[in-house]
Structure formats: C-alpha cells, structure tokens
Asp-tRNA(Asn)/Glu-tRNA(Gln) amidotransferase subunit GatB
Amino acid sequence: YPIVSGGHLADFDITRVHLEEDTANNKHFEGDTSTSLSAGFSLIDFNRAGVPLMELVTEPHTFESIEDTAKNATKFAKEFQLVLLYLGVSEANMEKGEMRVEANISVSTDKNKFGTKVEVKNLNSFRSVERAVKYELDRMTKLLEENKGSEIVQETRGWDEGKQATFSQRSKESSEDYRYFPDPDLPKLKLHEAFDLAEMKKALPELPEAKRARYQKDFGIKDEDIESYINDIELALWFEGVAEILADKEKIKIASNYITTDFIGLKKANLAVKPPSAKNFAELINLLTENKISSRTAKDILAMIVVDDTSPLKIATEKNMLQTSDENVLKKIVQKIIDENPEVVATYKGGKENAIMSLVGKAIKESKGSANPQMIIKLFKELLARS
C-alpha cells in the first residue's frame, strides 16, 4: 500500500514508502539420523505474521567500484535508521529485527543497461549489509569476467554470516510470484484539503542532515565529532548544553574534543560513567582555557566528575591542582633550575633547543605540578637569552 513517493536520502532517490504485513517465515532443518526425522523437515514460524511493516524502496543507483557501492549502501541504511530514531517512529534495532535491509544488486558491462538483478534478503546488521553487497558484487563480477554471465540468474539469496557468503534461496521471482493483492484492512487514504504538508514539516524534529549543517555553521567542530553527536542524541543534547554556556567557538571546539575523545574513552572503559552537568563540564573547559589548570589536570578532574558530578574549581582548589601563573614565583623556580643544571643549559645554548624541555620538566616538578607550562617555557627562554 504505497503512502509516500519521491524524495531523497543520503544521495539515494526514493521510489516509494509502502505498508505491508509481515509474513510467516519458513525454517528448514537438516535431518537427524538419531531421530525419526532423518529425512529433514521444514517448519513455518508464524510469530511475526500480521505485524505491520513499512518498506522504503529506492531508485537504482550506480557507483564506480565495488567498495564504493558497499559503503554507500551501508551509509544509506545507517542514515535511514537515524531518521527513524529522530522521528520516534521506531528504535530500528537491527539485532531485534526492528529494521532489515534487502539489497537488490546487479552488475553490467554496458553502462546504459542494468544487469540481471539479485536480491539479498533480511540483512540484520550494517556489517552484514556492507559485506553481503561486496561479496555478491565480487561473485557476479567474476562470472561476467569469466564469460559466465548466463549463470547470473534473477534470484533471492541469503547471507551466511558464518561463511561470509551469499547462498541461493529462490529463483526467477517476479511480482506475479508474490501474489500481491490489495489488503482489505487498509482502505485508501483520502487527505482533506486542510492537510498542510508545509505545516507538518515545521512540526517535525530536526533531522540528521539539518543537524549536521547547523553544527558545522554554529560550532565549526570536526566532521568526526559531528557524527558522534548525530549518532547519539543524548550526547548531542549534553554537548549543546555545554556549548550554550561556553558561548565561544574556540572553547566549544576544545570542549567537543574532550567529549569525543576523553569522555567517550572513559565511558568505554566503564559503562557506569555518566556525563557531568553541562555547567560543571563548561566550568572545567573554562579553567583549562584560562590556564588555571593544565590539560593533564583537566583529564584527571574529568575522570572524577563523571563519577561524582562536582564543581571542577572546588576539586582543583581542594587538591591543590590549580596552576600558578604568578611570574615572580615562577621566575624564582626557573632561575633555581638554571643554576642547578649548567650542563643542560650549555646543551641548549649550543643549539639543541629541545634541551629546554628537560629544564621545563624539572621546573614543573619543583612546583609540584602547579606551574603553568607555557609561562615556564617563556621564562626559561627569556632568562637563558640574558645569561
């Protein structure tokens, strides 16, 4: 029952969206010589029979290579899943069978003509989509290259995850073979003139494509970071809360980097880790960008506030983690290190500028980690230039 036609998604043109009912599922079992069922048997699983299905059909799309085809097919499936999630239509969990992909594949030596179509059914993971499409294209291409194009028949194939290969299920299917007929329980939809498509579009939530464009424009963050937020709605909401408080593009970029690397790294190591409040995380970034704490200290404090959501300033103050930027205090430390390390100083003055980092490390250790590294480097260069 077609309900939508036209449009596009992730560079694919959409033919239509229609409603179906799920059918019973045939399950075939090999024979067991230890029982009376030695000849093998088949069962029909009616568990999902009658469950409503929405199917989206795309127009054919050609790509330059097997790799490109497999990757773009997977990209489309991922983007469609995101749209369903953003709209609240479905959780589209492929492992639970809430979303499946059926890939129609063909290869041809004639750019103006499609080859014989093969459909790979019921792909239940993005990895399976990419691998099945790649495998089937490889298989069909080899047959053409070996002048065995006649062996490519219109058929339905399945995907064996264990063998990483497709296998034949049914052949020579046409629309007549499916015995399509109108569903008496689905009457024709008659849309009233007051049905305003433009108003409905306004009521929709922001979709992934629009969110990508907004993040690029408003925040200027890396594409990889944007995809992390696109794929995790809760993470995106937290990030936007942080960005609203920081209200500065450079600070927002730093915050995003800490979220997509350090925070996500902590979460992968410990599932109990939760995002701190946007207020506390923004406070952490402000401490860092104002040179009140070092990047190392910022990471240490982050590891604390994802477990116990506390003020980073309070933690830094109580644990003596705040950096010292007092030039008079730091100058005394720098001069002391210069006086105690004449050999390293001579090496630096001899042209090996990297030797200064040894002096910097000693100065930071002398300050018990409280010295601002940038200020220390600046003072070393100034004092060594004078001596």
In short: The chain has four domains: 1-59, 60-179, 208-318, 327-386. The chain has a mean pLDDT of 90. The first helix runs from residue 66 to 87.
